[in-house]
Amino acid sequence: MKAQNMLVPDSDRLKYRLLDCSEADSELLWQLDQDPLVMKFITRGKTTTRAEMRDRFLPRLQAYRNPESGWGLWGVHSNPADHFLGWILIRPMGFFDGERDDRNLEIGWRFHQSAWGKGYATEAAHAVAAGLILNDHCDDLSAVALPENTASIQVMKKLGLRYVNTTDHDDDDYGIYQLARYSAAVREVRDAQRCFRTSRENPMS
Q: Sheet containing 14-18: which strands, arranged edge to edge?
């Protein structure tokens, strides 16, 4: 019997779809990367060219995309208008550096500037994480960011992730830079999800 693809239920304001390498989804991804502010903490503001999208980004996406396990880029769309807001990344930690861990999943996010400050990243990250936990697809969740990317780190903390360490990395294009890593076991993520649901149901409490 073929395994079922993981699904993430819609909320009253967001809906989710695992993106692929189709022309339509590729265009959504490329458009998102055209804002220097969106790319500030990723490429120091350098926008993605179409050649980079075709030759680097999409092949990497295809390498780790796994609908049954929930790995890939989860497109986040407004509900009901269906405007593309951004994405949530899920893939095994260390997938491209030889230290792959299929039970410790990396979670990340990238959203259009127009979607900032509305809690979309936190809500979407919680929704996708809940799907992973419900389907027993992970034991831990981890995320990385530049230490100065405080907005992204706040989302990590709201997911229940805790600071692990900061390490140096050497990149051919951007030289030496640091990444802060945050991580949590499934139990801790579940606790954070309960707190998040409570805050949504009782915003004044």
A: 14-18, 72-78, 84-93, 101-111, 140-145, 175-185, 162-171
